[in-house]
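Q: Got a minute? One more chain.
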Amino acid sequence: MGVVISALVTFWVGYLIYKKYKPQPVLFLGGMILMYLAVILGYGQILGEKARTGSVFFDAFEFMRSAMSSNVGKLGLNIMSVGAFARYMDKIGASRALVRLTIKPLLALKSPYLVMSGTWIVGMLIGLCINSASGLAMLLMVTMFPILLGLGVSRLSATAAVATTLCFDWSPSDTGTILSAETAGVNPVFYWSHYQVPIVAVAFVVVGALHYFTQKYMDKRAGHVVTPMEVETVKDESDTAPMIYAILPVIPLALILSFSSLWITTVKMNIVMAMFIGLFVGMCCEYIRWRDAKKVFGDIQAFFDGLGMQMANVITLIIAGQTFAQGLITMGTINTLIESSKDLGFGPMAMMLVMVGIIAVSAVVMGSGNAPFFAFAALTPAVAAHTGLHPVLMLLPMHFAASIMRNCSPITAVIVVSSGMGGVSSFDLVKRTAIPMAGAMIVTIGMTFFYYYSGY
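A: Always. Here it is, folded:
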């Protein structure tokens, strides 16, 4: 009965999010309903005996307070600082400078579909520094999209390559990466270098090739004729940052990777420190550029606004997801599913596939990668413990499945933004992204099996 109730509430939550209801209050409410029903029906208690407030009604709110307190101090601060730094880089034009610099080598290539595949690969590399899929897509739609059109690629093909440039959220400063590493009890840099990088390295070849052949075939089938033309590049008036600014978004990443187990171990570096150092260097560059301290100090407000936006949008989503997950745990749903899977003979990797399947479907239906992953991430240590699987090998494919499958949803932000700027239908666009993203999923699952059987 508990599983049926959980399924109904989960479906209701997913339906509301699909209908564009704000996910945070929906997840909070869904979690609270499950918690209270679990207590009323005798399935479990919301909090442990020592943590209880003395009132079942208050216990749900105490859980939310505790979740917020534990998240804001460490994980939340990391996420807020990353988001704030990205906003400041965009404010001073450094993000645009980075994109302008990295796409230049592509101009020397004469094959339009090879350039298109190269755009996807370079976009993935830029994604190490620009963690917003829709933000990166907007930058590339402004800069690379006209070049692809000029080389003769169709609007749908060019938009598909740009829209999927961050189908793997693989940066060590990405919020999902940080959450996965923290939940699995692994250092984010180790998680990135030992688990994420090998998967993405294989995906560069597989997904890049799939984009090349898929878009070329679909353009031909649609009757599109490749007709290269001269491209007149018109520089946006606001895009005036000097090219040297391209190194600014890379500074935090370089610091994080340099002062880690990968290289220098005598100096300690963390994500928040790296972001503040990058901010300081950016301020110095801005003063040299403008010689106006009032303007430089005023632009810092973009960083502060970024902190608040991350708290309002990302941190609250994580806490809401944990609240919903706690409701499922209190109902005993996860234990029931695990035991049922065992009865059906599901082994560790089969359970991983079940969790990945749930995340993949949820990402398409909800139009979000973060919402389903943040909602279920908190459950994985318990599931992994019951199956004997290392938490990383469950969180890793779940995390990548969420970011991959959002590119197959016509209602997700990056698809909507890209299709709008490209002048194409979002439903037509996901038909172009489906095959490359299927390849990305196969790579992710295949590499996870490789990790498992290799004893990682």
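A: The radius of gyration is 23 Å.
Q: Perfect, thanks.
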